[in-house]
Amino acid sequence: MNRTKQSARGQYLLDRGASLPLILPATLLVLVFLVGPFGYMTYTAMTDLSYANPDQNGAFIGLDNFRHLVRNDSIFWNSFWLTIRFVVVSVTVEFLLGFFLAWLIWRFIERQRLLTTLLLVPMMLAPVAVGLIWRLLLQGDFGMVTYYLHKIGLLSRASAVFSSPDLVMPAIIAIDVWQWTPFVTLIVLAGLMSLPKSPFEAATMDGAGPWRQFIDIMLPLLRPIIALVLLLRGIDAFKEFDKVFIMTGGGPGTVSELLSIYAYRVNFKNWNLGYGAAVAFMVYLVVLILCSIFYKAVYWKPSARQARAR
Amino acid sequence: MLGNGSTIRMLTITAALSAVMTLGPVSHAAAWSLEEAAAPYKGATIRTIGEALPPLEAMKELAPEFEKRTGIKVEIEMYEHSEAVSKVMLDLNSKRGRYDFIIQPHRELGKFVTNGHVVPVDAFMADPQLRDPDFKPEDQLYQRLWKEISWYDGKDYGFPFTALTMYMWYRSDLLSDDHEKEGFKAKYGYDLAPAQNWQQYRDIAEWFTRPDQRLFGTALQGKRHEALWYEWLNFLYSFGGDMLETKSGSECGPVVVNSPQAIAATEYYKSLKAFSPPDTLNYFWDDVMALMQQGEVAQLIMWNDSTYAVAVDETASTVVGKMGFDLVPQGDGGKVAQVEGWTYLIPTESKNKEAAYLFVQWMMDYDQQLRQHLHGGASARPDVYASADVQKLPYSKASMESNEVAKPKPTVPLSGEMTDILVRELSSYLADEKSAKEALDTSAQEISTLLGSCAPMKYPVE
Q1: pLDDT for the residue numbered A258
Q2: Is the peptide bond prior to A252 cis by the omega test (within 30 degrees of 0)?
Q3: Where are the domains of chain B?
Q4: B429 interaction partners in chain A (CB closer than 8 Å)
Q5: Do B282 and A250 touch (CB under 8 A)?
Q6: Mind listing the pLDDT tens digit for each residue in B399-457?
Q7: B222 contacts in chain A (CB < 8 Å)
Q8: The domain B166-338+411-454 belongs to what CATH superfamily?
Q9: ipTM of the complex as predicted
Q10: What's the mean pLDDT in B62-81?
């Protein structure tokens, strides 16, 4: 009775506008730290602002920066496609490897706590630290990994990983895989551990083999988890900066100049902030498209006809 | 009598006035003291920022003495080169005034001046309360260097923190070894000695390239980093090339970076890759310095402010006593080196400009300059190089000679972007992405577009 009264009073207060003070702090945070800066970035992208050139003092130039970026900036497009290749390859390898490891742990290992703690180590390291560690490990003269690569003949003694244009991106992808596969493993493992048993038992009773169960039961049940992990890794990989900047600085040449490194150069080397904001806006746009694709994938449900067909 | 008395009195007054006028500056000089000049600012804290290298570390060691004498606290922030530059840029543009004085590479000067971020120092110099009468930069500093790295458009914005330049480092023990000399002469037909021209430099590099003994003829700073551009400039200038056809760094002029001399210099530069360690395309100055400290390189072109750590510091180097230094080898451009330096500047938004000026002025004093130089600094005062202690440093002669023939480089507001274009294109050439001509043509086109009508291309690209 008392509870019903309280509930009614609460509803009354909410109806009378008391909800506003409750959501205000969170709304303010979002406005100040997300909407505000994004709005400012969007506006800056439509100006000629430069900290280096006194003639470019932030005059409004409409979409000129975007026009130049899309039509004339070959370095931007080179970086863009390089970043796309980096994201696709590294996230795919991380996902396959991470899924496989998670499945192995889930299936065969009883005491998972110690192993999962150990798995956390690479992803707990700051990306800058990862960059520095691997820069030293792969250093051409004193690097420990280089020494063993030479010893087992995988790398010619006359070459070094970060000075060989053909090896730089594979090495960067391998390091990213080393760092982030555990993240995929942990998320997928959590998903596997929360799977209900009854569908598998029923499928076994119906005579479905392990592969059939994997394809038709496990994967559909894990779909939200898989989409989440791909989304998070995709966004993160698209923004990759620290490791590559420390290890190669985008070189040699433009071999490892990812979009984030290009944006850094435009903004913080050349101080061309208007154009740099346009580059950053494009990064945001791609991430937004990625998010919406994955969001659709998570909430995608087969239509009634498709379900019947299955 | 009156007349006589009056004349005598007049004479006495005149004599007294003359004495006052003559002795005035002397007595004022005697009267000026740092303690008194700093009294109004006692208790203030001045903050600065610079590159974490021996010259700044030496300044940090000296600062407590200034603090003790003046009661002005000095806070020094040290960062890696790029970090020290970008932090300043952000602070200046945010107008927070975090730094009371800054220590920056002189290529940034045009950007700071044209955007109104720094103030000229003439007002402080003209203030008798602040100006130490013994501080006479017009007599005491390398004039050309001072005017190039601390002046812009005819105005003085500061004083050189370091007089930097690059010259040739070589292993004197290897070059004077009888066995090596004999073998070298048999192969190349002339005596082994520090290279005087680029042909000799390449021969020596080739001769000492012995990967199985962990010894290489040279090491290029081939990473995509400012270090690559700085190193390449030595080759460019020596071959008779340049970036812009101008007389001073603050001028804009025709772009000549794709001249035949520049292309020849760049091709020669890359040819040395064959005599460098395998990881040479990932090296910048720290890496090649470490290689020299480990005794793995026979010769290279390097900075004077890194020399101390290799030639003197026994805790860091295995080649102390085995090093020699000389000017960069000569090409068609003759004896040349490059003007470079970090300069003291006072930001417009500085909250303690006068106290900052007093500290800078104190640092420019002979005693401080000498002590800073002996601990890894690179003074802009010729009298410091005349000191017996400095003469004992094995690199003093090369340093002085290089300062005397050093060529200026652009300090125009967009010089940073020019550097970035050249670093990218040179790195692409080293990575075999394009030819030297393509790389320099692209650089010239982009630099010309960047600088506008003041910078037409002298060697147009078809």
Answers
A1: 95
A2: yes
A3: 34-164+340-393, 166-338+411-454
A4: 253
A5: no
A6: 889 988 899 889 899 998 999 999 999 999 999 999 999 999 999 999 999 999 999 99
A7: 163, 252
A8: Periplasmic binding protein-like II (3.40.190.10)
A9: 0.81
A10: 96
For the stretch A102-108, contacts whose Cβ atoms lie closer than 8 Å and that sit 24 or more positions apart, written own/partner, are A102/A184, A102/A185, A102/A186, A102/A188, A102/A189, A102/A192, A103/A188, A103/A192, A105/A185, A105/A189, A106/A189, A106/A192, A106/A193
> If DSSP codes are grouped into helix, strand and coil, which group holds residue B164?
strand
pLDDT per residue as tens digits for the range A160-182: 999 999 999 999 999 999 999 99
Domains of chain A by residue range: 73-257
How high does pLDDT run on average in chain A? 88
Q: Does A159 touch chain B (CB under 8 A)?
A: yes
A209-253 tens-digit pLDDT: 989 999 999 999 998 899 889 989 998 999 899 999 999 999 899
pLDDT, position A245: 93
- pLDDT, tens digit (0-9, with 9 covering 90-100), for B377-412: 899 999 999 999 999 888 989 988 998 889 988 989
Does the pLDDT value for residue A306 go beyond 70?
no
CB contact under 8 A, A141 and B93: no
* B117, B228, B417, B430: best to mutate for the A interface, most A CBs within 10 A: B417
Q: Which run of H or E residues covers position B90?
A: helix B81-94
Q: Tell me, yes or no, if A248 comes closer than 8 A to chain B by beta carbon.
A: yes
Tracing tokens 């101080």 back to the chain, one arrives at A271
Quickly state the pLDDT bin for B70 (edges 50, 70, 90). Answer: very high
Q: Which CATH superfamily is domain A73-257 in?
A: MetI-like (1.10.3720.10)
pTM greater than the 0.95 cutoff: no
Q: How many CB pairs under 8 A join A and B?
A: 99
B333 touches chain A (CB under 8 A): no
Tokens found for residue A212: 């059939």
Task: Tell whether A62 lies on the interface with B, counting CB pairs under 8 A.
Answer: no
Q: Is A250 on the interface with B (CB under 8 A)?
A: yes
Whether residue A165 lies within 8 A of chain B, CB to CB, comes out as yes
Instruction: Indicate the CATH number for domain B34-164+340-393.
Output: 3.40.190.10
The residue whose two tokens read 């300069």 is: B343
- The sign of the CA dihedral B266, B272, B273, B274 is positive
Inform me whether the C-beta atom of residue A78 falls under 8 Å from chain B C-beta atoms.
no
CB within 8 Å: A141 and B433: no
User: Can you give the length of chain A in residues?
Assistant: 310
